[in-house]
Amino acid sequence: MRIVIAIMWLLHWLPLPVLGRIGEAIGSLCFVLLRSRRRIALTNLRLCLPELSEDARKKLAKKHFQDYARSLFERSILWWSSEARLQSLMQIDPEIPLDAFKAGPIILLCPHFVCLDVAGIAISMKASACSMYSRQRNKVFDEALRKGRLRFGDIKLFSRNDGVKPIIRAMRSGLPFFMLPDMDFGIKDAEFVPFFGIPAATLTATARIAAATGAKVIPVIASYLPNYKGWKIKFYPAWENYPGDDMLAATRHMNAFIEERVRETPAEYLWTHKRFKTRPAGLPSVYSKSDPDTLPGPD
User: Does the N-terminal or the C-terminal CB of the chain have fewer CB atoms within 10 Å?
Assistant: First the structure.
């Protein structure tokens, strides 16, 4: 892995169009070779986008592999390029709502699109923040990921194993919480909430933390600009009257918002994750029992 990290460092000197095309070529190869991950992606697409033909879903899955692999290669720019270069590649629209950050607790809701690290870096160049991540199994990659995400600003990065209490303390001290809300971590602290009409074990933490801290929820999503020009980071208006008194309804609102964004850039959502791994009692698994191939996660 140290050799891989060294190669990534060398790659960050390349122009973004060259790096992006290399990533897409590797993604096309991964689509062929990583059969179990391909099955997961196609299963998710059949469940979530049944209106598409099988051929259209295969093309979309291949494009997702290309976009995902491209994002992994482009992390080299995020982790090692100068701040000036990064800013030249980022189109932020509207501008980062720094006044809202100062006004009170904030949850920056960032679903699992492949460019989520771009949004995190864009925020860290302008403001302090805190976030939670899953430790990677490979210690060398884990260290590189942490250093890359912590290179700008006063960023506090907590392990998911630490629980939510450190996050709430950090929010109450004035740090916005950059939150990744939409992975299946089992039924603990989760409810089965529809995602594209399929019951999905969904963490209710967004609603519960917002209720406990009085935080405003401001979604932020990063996506690719056309023609390898860089990335677009979009901040959405804060959700009004959120979460209200009904945590389940608030969680449904979150999933519905993510669905709308997925339909805008479907290839960039994380289809290789077993989003429906946890099933309601009595319902069979929707995935193959074969072990997935190893693919570094964006979390």
Answer: N
Give Cα separations from 110 to 4, 23, 132, 222, 285 (angstroms). Answer: 27, 23, 12, 9, 27
Q: Are the C-beta atoms of 61 and 45 separated by less than 8 Å? A: yes
CA nearest to 160, candidates 138, 195, 130, 187:
130
Please provide residue 273's backbone torsions phi and psi, each rounded to the nearest 5 degrees.
Answer: -90, 140
Number of C-alpha atoms within 13 angstroms, CB side, residue 294?
3
Number of residues written out for the chain: 299
Does this model's pTM top 0.90? yes
- Asked if the bond preceding 243 is cis, omega within 30° of 0, the reply is yes
Check if the beta carbon of residue 178 is closer than 8 Å to that of residue 110: yes
Q: Cβ contacts of residue 123 below 8 Å, gap of 6+?
A: 96, 108, 129, 176, 178, 220
Burial of 37 from C-beta contacts in 10 A (0-12 / 13-18 / 19+): buried
For 84-99, how does the pLDDT look when each residue is reduced to its tens digit (9 = 90+)? 999 999 999 888 999 9
Do residues 256 and 245 make contact, with C-beta atoms less than 8 angstroms apart?
Answer: no
Residue 186: CB atoms within 10 A of its CB come to 10
**Domain limits of the chain?**
2-268
The pair of three-digit structure tokens given for residue 247, joined into one six-digit string: 């945590």
CB 233 within 8 A of CB 116: no
State residue 289's pLDDT score. 60
